[in-house]
User: Fold this.
Amino acid sequence: MSAMSQVEQKPAIADNQWQVIAHRGGRQLRPGNTMIAFRNAVELGVDALELDVHGTRDGALVVIHDGTVDRTTNGSGAVSDLTLSEIRALDAGYNWSSHTDTDHHLYRDTGVTIPTLDEVLTAFPDTPMVIEIKQADPPIVEAFGLMLREHDRARNTIVASFHREVLEEFRRRFPEFATSGAEPEIRRFYVLNKLFLGRSFRPAMDAFQVPEQLGNLKVITRRFVRVARSRGIAVHVWTVNESEDMERILRTGVDGIISDRPDRLLELLGR
Assistant:
């Protein structure tokens, strides 16, 4: 019996592989959180996509990381202050660069737009996803959860958020979905594990998505991973882009790595 089989898991965790997770679709390869990034990642053969969701002024759910459009597009303003029509008019490839001379602004003026969540779910119905609820106010939990249900995503989706209250509300209203741990929950497990009490941890979450190290604090160790998995909690590490770091982290037994360069991770795994 494996460590992960000691605790019953939700289908999203138990029935899917999460080894290679493309962060924002692999944002060092294509403009992040866009359809061309997601298509490229799926064509590469990743196990899952990671993406972020905000709500527009008129209630649409759109896939973008920041709370404003300034950094990634040719527009400005908060996502929640713009209508879907205004969001659709923006160039989501405008500021992207792979930081090489030959690829500088390669996708500017090529028709790259900010997709809606519905468009992404429709385009990739069978691709596992980690979807982060970025917005806490105004709330989007109900609209978000109902859309996931409409697309039958409980079977292959992990829902994440840095807002603990958002995650708690989502779990109450949509209990069939797998969720990742909020920071206070992860911190509690970390302390218990340091005190050799990790196996007493009663998880409300299904996955830990954590950095390898936080400041001087080393989060990912073999024991952290082993004990988390014994509680039915999958461990995914973000955001790892260098091959030597990937190789070191894989040796700890983690379930997956979230990366802007999924191509490197796939190559390392011989896939």
Summary: DSSP finds ten helices and eleven strands in the chain.
